[in-house]
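Protocol step 4 of 6: structure prediction from sequence.
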Amino acid sequence: MSRSARLHPDGKMRCPWPGEDPFYIAYHDDEWGVPEYDDRALYEKLILDGFQAGLSWITILRKRENFRKAFDDFQPEKIARYNAKKVHALMNDAGIVRNRAKIEGTVASAKSYLEIMEKGPGFSKFLWDFVDGKPKVNQFKTTASVPASTPVSIKISKELGSRGFKFVGPTIVYAFMQATGMVNDHLVACHCHATCGGTHRKPRLKVK
């Protein structure tokens, strides 16, 4: 179904997908599409997008703090050392999505992440080099125009997969690119389209 940007009671036009949910609106306004260059934050987002497969993003977003507690604030150095006992404990954690393949994939992806960090070029540079280091700004007017994947997301997906990352299909990767600002897919009428990446948008909340 094709949907256009909608006017909210605060007088701002927004992409239609957050609806009227204040929590989702805050994510849309302050985080989605803001360029992220932090290596660890990018790993976290890629993992969460993998957990989203088959679910809605708002489900994962509401559980994000639980995920952070369960997965040691998404520190790859710690996750790469998870053993069977830890995986079993995570499978019993009702605060996250309990999917063994995705949990084990998180561990495998952490090991692949560390290899990119140790042997070069670094996770952020590795990803952003696919878009020449800066966001690709699209000019979509309706959600029907927004693709589920692109040649670039397919290319990144293949490269991540070849390096041992799990749950990194082209569609997951494109959702990741949208969220981390590698592409600006806010609809043109949305108030965030022009300001995406601007200094007056709040930076992503860092995990301490």
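Step 5 (inspection) to follow. Residues 199-208 have pLDDT under 50 and may be disordered.
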